[in-house]
Amino acid sequence: DNGATIHDFRLVEGATHTNLIFDVVVPFRVKMTDEQIKTRLSELIFEKIGNNYFAVVNIDRDVSKEIG
């Protein structure tokens, strides 16, 4: 979704892989579950930069624009 944003991004390198740790703010209107969003992000990371990177994601729902 074009309205999604990330913050608190950090990399934690380990012996076998690197964790990409970040929060994603997802518009409330997005119907995907948090688990579906995390899975999709993991797939995109694998496709773009390889299998030595793992997403550790916290999902926040942005209701501020929905309340008006």
Structure, described:
This protein is α+β, with helices and mostly antiparallel strands. It is 29% helix and 43% strand. A three-stranded mixed beta sheet has the order 1-2-3. Strand 1 and strand 2 form a beta hairpin. The protein is elongated. The protein starts with a strand and ends with a helix. The model has no long low-confidence stretch (mean pLDDT 90).
Question: What is this structure's SSE topology?
Answer:
Blueprint: E1 5-13, E2 18-27, H1 34-49, E3 53-62, H2 64-67
Parallel strand pairs: 2-3
Antiparallel strand pairs: 1-2
What is the CA-atom radius of gyration, in angstroms?
13 Å
Order of secondary-structure elements: EEHEH
> Would you tell me the structural class of the helices and strands?
alpha+beta
Q: First CA to last CA: what distance?
A: 20 Å
Oligomer: single chain
Low-pLDDT runs: none
- Sum up the overall morphology in one term: elongated
Query: How large is the count of helical segments?
Result: 2
